[in-house]
Amino acid sequence: MKKDTKFVASGRSKEWTRGAVNPAVVRASTVVFDSVSEMKKATQQRHSKTLFYGRRGTSTAFAFQDAMNELEGGVGCALYPSGTAAISGSLLSFLQAGDHLLVVDNVYEPTRDLCDTLLSRYGIETTYYDPLIGADIEALIQPNTKVIYLESPGSLTMEVQDVPAITHVARAHGILTMLDNTWASPVNLQPFELGVDVSIQAATKYVVGHSDVMLGTATTTAEHWDQLRENSYLLGQCTSPDDLYLALRGIRTLGVRMKQHQKNALELAYWLAKRADVDHVRHPALATCPGHEHFIRDFSGSNGLFSFVLKKGNQAGINAMLDGMEHFKIGFSWGGFESLILGHMPEHIAHLRSVTDWQQTGPLIRVHIGLEDTQDLIEDLDRGLARLAEHL
Ligand SMILES: *Cc1c(COP(=O)(O)O)cnc(C)c1O
């Protein structure tokens, strides 16, 4: 089945839809059984897609899990109430006191905070590594290294990792790899084909796609599914069937949305790349993005999220630019239908990393390009950059 067909067909087995087009929203805490023996049978099968207790999910969850497995190519999908919960749930499922963890230096800020606070308190030591390290990661491996954590492209600065080089080294040492695959979404990268063991999605972003649900997933292979599922269950992770219904609805248009986000963002990226006030554009599809060659090799497309670095600018200029934007809204998150913008001075970017230097002197602007008309977005950015320049 081709991908566009999968967006339509996945998670829609008759068992979940009962003849309607979409699976029903099935709410449950308690599930009632016809007899003691039926209850016993359900208990024995509680790991599979059977109604047992609400926390294990209902048919709405099973439909969404089927869809995510089909799209990402995994065999099991654990569900979490946010992307951040998927990250902590995955790490806590595979690590224990005394373990060592390798984490990419441009990782999503809350992931770094988790490693430096809670995981550290639990006796798990983290070493950060250069996003462009590739096979040289081998030199950082210790006898107690249990997990290598990747995010590609990484948050804000967008370096694209050499995922297969790292998973190859990890396999040779019996180390588990996890990838925050949110940027690619289930559309543009097949994590298991690149040797990744656990693929994490902030489904909050493109899967849901409408900025109205918090949701996370961790998809994995047959080898690791029991451990991920049972430990996440012990952590009490579960999700609302209403949210899962919206996420399933999001999947139906994921392919077409991503194509339009990609088209719009590339148009904006090329327009920015030609400007005299822009130092360079960090869009994985452009050669000026570090790790661009890995993007070309491993990804089947891009999306609406990228950054660009200005030659000059100060905080007052960033504030004037952002405060006056018409179509771009100031906000965290991304992956919805609307355009968003954030701006950071270089000191802030440098502060978010610990083993790689940030040598840029101008501000970094991160944009999420939504589904608006690109001419409106270009004019909005053009006026914004003029406001920023007034403060130079
Ligand atoms: C937003 C984001 C997350 C966290 O997702 P939430 O649902 O907001 O908790 C994780 N990783 C990346 C790369 C993200 O952009």
From TrEMBL:
<dbReference type="GO" id="GO:0047804">
    <property type="term" value="F:cysteine-S-conjugate beta-lyase activity"/>
</dbReference>
<comment type="similarity">
    <text>Belongs to the trans-sulfuration enzymes family.</text>
</comment>
<dbReference type="Pfam" id="PF01053">
    <property type="entry name" value="Cys_Met_Meta_PP"/>
</dbReference>
<protein>
    <submittedName>
        <fullName>Cystathionine beta-lyase</fullName>
        <ecNumber>4.4.1.13</ecNumber>
    </submittedName>
</protein>
<keyword id="KW-0663">Pyridoxal phosphate</keyword>
<comment type="pathway">
    <text>Amino-acid biosynthesis; L-methionine biosynthesis via de novo pathway; L-homocysteine from L-cystathionine: step 1/1.</text>
</comment>
<dbReference type="InterPro" id="IPR015422">
    <property type="entry name" value="PyrdxlP-dep_Trfase_small"/>
</dbReference>
<dbReference type="InterPro" id="IPR006233">
    <property type="entry name" value="Cys_b_lyase_bac"/>
</dbReference>
<dbReference type="InterPro" id="IPR015424">
    <property type="entry name" value="PyrdxlP-dep_Trfase"/>
</dbReference>
<dbReference type="InterPro" id="IPR054542">
    <property type="entry name" value="Cys_met_metab_PP"/>
</dbReference>
<dbReference type="InterPro" id="IPR000277">
    <property type="entry name" value="Cys/Met-Metab_PyrdxlP-dep_enz"/>
</dbReference>
<keyword id="KW-0456">Lyase</keyword>
<dbReference type="InterPro" id="IPR015421">
    <property type="entry name" value="PyrdxlP-dep_Trfase_major"/>
</dbReference>
